[in-house]
Every structure is written in structure tokens, then in C-alpha cells.
Write the C-alpha cells for this entry.
Amino acid sequence: MMPVGSRFEFVIPPELAWGKKGVGNKIGPNAVLFFDVRLIEVEF
């Protein structure tokens, strides 16, 4: 479904990502999580 060379950006809302507490002092509360996914090669 994702052809080689394609790029997708996924945005995860705060309630599914880090939540109201965050992660220590590195990630604040209600932070949005972003994924940048690039398919470079498929091996069988």
C-alpha cells in the first residue's frame, strides 16, 4: 500500500501520544507526536 519512495507524515494527538502528564521534563504535557515515515527499499 506504500510504494517505494513514498513519504507519509503521521500526527498523533496528545490524548493518544504523551497524555496530560508528558514524559518527565523532556516532553511537556499534551504534546503532539509527529512521525515522518519514508519507504526506501523493500527486501524479501
Summary: DSSP finds no helices and two strands in the chain. The radius of gyration is 15 Å. The mean pLDDT is 93.
